[in-house]
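[recover] target loaded
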């Protein structure tokens, strides 16, 4: 798109002075936006590379200090209460037999 605008700006005979001035203004605006985009890209690249070691360090500390969480359930007498035997036998189907 920038090439098309520049060709209109350079065309002296085919475009009038107003079209050349508008094309020149568009080119200046596009170059200004491109320069701003380059600055913003460089800024966020620095921010990303600065945060990378911090995030890696926090992940390392989190994983280093991890410990297992074993839950022991109390042995309540009503947990294994049954009125009659199961069809498959005295042991529970999905549990540890007592």
């Amino acid at each position: 798109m920038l090439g098309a605008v520049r060709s209109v700006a350079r065309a002296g005979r085919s475009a009038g002075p107003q079209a050349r001035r508008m094309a020149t203004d568009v080119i200046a605006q596009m170059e200004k936006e491109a320069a701003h985009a380059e600055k913003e890209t460089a800024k966020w690249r620095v921010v990303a590379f600065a945060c990378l070691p911090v995030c890696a360090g926090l992940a390392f500390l989190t994983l280093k200090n991890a410990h297992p969480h074993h839950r022991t359930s109390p042995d309540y007498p009503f947990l294994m209460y049954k009125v009659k035997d199961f069809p498959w036998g005295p042991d529970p189907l999905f549990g540890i037999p007592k």
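[recover] notes: The first helix runs from residue 2 to 10.
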